[in-house]
Amino acid sequence: MNQQSNLPAAEAITLPQPYLLFLGDNREPGYAKTAYGLRDWAGDLCIGEYKLDDQTTTTGLPQLTPAEAAAKGAKSMVIGVANSGGFIPPSWIAGLVEALEAGLDLISGMHMRLADLPELREPAERLGRRLIDIRTPPRNIPIGTGRKRTGKRLLAVGTDCALGKKYTALAIARGFKARGIDADFRATGQTGIMIAGGGIPMDAVVADFSAGAAEILSPDAAPDHWDVIEGQGSLFHPAYAGVSLGLLHGSQPDVIVVCHEAGREHVLGHPGYVLPSLQETIDLHLRLGSRTNPAIRCGGISLNTSKLSAEEADALCASESERLGLPVADPVRGGPAFERLLDNCLA
Amino acid sequence: MNQQSNLPAAEAITLPQPYLLFLGDNREPGYAKTAYGLRDWAGDLCIGEYKLDDQTTTTGLPQLTPAEAAAKGAKSMVIGVANSGGFIPPSWIAGLVEALEAGLDLISGMHMRLADLPELREPAERLGRRLIDIRTPPRNIPIGTGRKRTGKRLLAVGTDCALGKKYTALAIARGFKARGIDADFRATGQTGIMIAGGGIPMDAVVADFSAGAAEILSPDAAPDHWDVIEGQGSLFHPAYAGVSLGLLHGSQPDVIVVCHEAGREHVLGHPGYVLPSLQETIDLHLRLGSRTNPAIRCGGISLNTSKLSAEEADALCASESERLGLPVADPVRGGPAFERLLDNCLA
Lengths: 347, 347
Hints:
Two copies of one chain form a homodimer. Chain A is α/β, with parallel strands linked by helices. Chain A contains eleven helices and 15 strands. In chain A, β14, α10 and β15 form a beta-alpha-beta unit. In chain A, α7 packs across α8. The longest helix of chain A has 15 residues.
């Protein structure tokens, strides 16, 4: 097990904002998820979009060159599109360098690191701009201490990966704020970090430091402040459960919200692994989470009902709520069920 | 969550053997733990020791210069001592370079990387020798698959860190071999890796790859072959539980042996954290471990009784065995209780 070093402890990543969104020459809306997520959840931080040609997908935000965006106050350009290989194609380089020359830092969540491309590193160094790779965690993350921190915390957990934990945490943080509650969304994945303007990429942290990373992600706060933390992976996932447990222990949540997709029966990509029941999922999180916060409780269920009609979704949320004795809502659909979920999280 | 790359999947580290043990100019036996561990558990792989002066602590092995050791077949020199800062003092450099010049690779488990020292990197490059830092995990570890592997596996787990998991796994592997069973000790920490001549430093693996690392550590094997795997951390530890869960899931143990130190009541260094009971520890491991191996069972308890007299230790093992309905033994003391533990693991 690792020792703590004598260097000052790390803090979570913080990003220069507001953003210009870079869409490259992408034709495929499915690859522009990051740009759409930023538009939907951090629209006030997005000054505009920059496309390399007319056929490129659009977010509907104003089209600006890097120089125009900088004149309007933009501090960075975010790569808002992915491609299947996770790399930066040669056709993007001139546009990325143009942003550096206009005074913007570059932000990327892709697998290929910006700093590994000499065509970008050289102008960035010459111009004094930053190349920020969101997948690179901060240096010198401390070992977890297990010390109870002040303030309130909610963690979105799940029966599986990729079923709405980020969306749920964002919607709950937004719902809390709408009620006048002092709340922060705390991001643990690439897109979430861009939306929040900071956070820690939990999946890229060395395993010994997982809980410590979660601890610095949601530091001591005022007694009535809420951190609403994006979950990662699942305690039931054959590859990622360790990340989920480190995040659960380090987050010390007072409240968990369990996320699930209606109809999903197996772990995504692992057909041999049946998903746990909602009750099993609640029980295991409360048992393990009570190690660092004995007062942990379940606030309710966030059900992704995107494959159902509105009527089917309402009926399912109502019957599941009756069965489990907890609020069950789809935050995308909102409405009274979601308000009841918020009520119970705050109860 | 990370994607798999297209590069060939990693394999566990393998080390050039036999070893010459380097003791530097160390005066403090407590700092020579690695050298003593290698002498005790891999004595047939240790050709001798190399000390910089007469006051240096000794393992009792033949004293050889690097050239003499190389002539006797040594392939590498292992740094067998630590110091409080985890760094390599200037007084060692000439001796380390002497080993490179004699044709030996260098192996270190220290925090400071050998390859970061120009005084070593330059001669190693010039002479074509390897500088092997055990704390650096292999590149390109795959994401866990959860696929059930052939062969049998035993994992030493614990109520806490630093109470005998490595020793327990080594003793069980040795006990299995003494019965003619085909068994391998699988190492997950620095000293264990040197003893085994290979393994994976689980604490240094990026969290998303913990289970995948455990999977490649104990690959498919013959149906009656046993991998006896060194555990790390504890599911109840506020900092390290994520590592322990990734290792549990990826190891897919058929049998766990729970390690505990008699009299320890709190997590080492975390006085606010009471240790779980043995029954709680067994239950949680079986519940979580059953996710990747539904046939998981507990083979017994390995009790570190180093602070007790022989009579007290025997009485405690007997009463705990009666209470839990499982074999309880201290592998350091061996004897019939330990043979019963081996019996039950193989049952």
